[in-house]
Amino acid sequence: MSLAVDDAAWRSAWRRRAPGDKLLLCAGLVGCALALPAWPGSVLVALTAVALALGPARVPARTFGRAVRWPLAFVATGALTAVVSVGDGGLGWAPDAAARAGSLVGHAVAGTAAVLLLATTTPVSDLLPVLRRLRVPAAVVEVAAVTYRLLFVLLESLSTIREAQAARMGHSSVRRSYRSSGALAAAVLTRSWDRARRLQEGLAGRGMETGLRVLPEALPSSRAFLAASAAGLAALVSLGVLAA
User: Fold this and answer.
1) Which residue in 27, 59, 82, 207 has its CB near the most CB atoms, within 10 A?
2) What GO terms describe the biological role, i.e. biological process, of this protein (predicted)?
3) Looking at residues 127-151, what average pLDDT do you find?
């Protein structure tokens, strides 16, 4: 079992680039998305992130589009709730509804595109050592690593149980599909909880009181990439400020 975003990261043309370089670029894009005005700053940031992902990084457009669907739905929901005001007369539109919604959507979409650029070009196994070097608390890094590993356990359990249900005609009607979906959710959560408990007990039995240390793959940093990233971010800031 695999995740489309994870597969895209391993197959990306930027896979062999230093994860620290990509992290600096994407962090700079997120900073620009938050600091620059929604128009045209956030629009430029979003277009830059998408162009880098589909162009030099060679991330499949279908994968990037599927990955951005749910964040965009969340952004749209948040924008809708932000422009509605509740008063004595009931529900109504806020006085500056259009400007508020546009600013919220612009910043959120640009930041999401920048984060997805990192996610689709950098595997988690490359990113975790960088977080350790940046002195992110060890507990946070370990939780992220365990959560990442358990995602595949969850996917495997989901696929196995769904295949068994399909073989028993569990999705032959709408009523059976509802019942099967409920049973599927319960079984997957139960299996995942049991697997996590057994993993914790196994590590405790081996005396694992600290994080599991592994030898990360050494990927050299590129001065040309860093210089191009700095120049591009400076250009975005200049265009965003001058055109605002």
Assistant:
1) 59
2) cobalt ion transport
3) 81
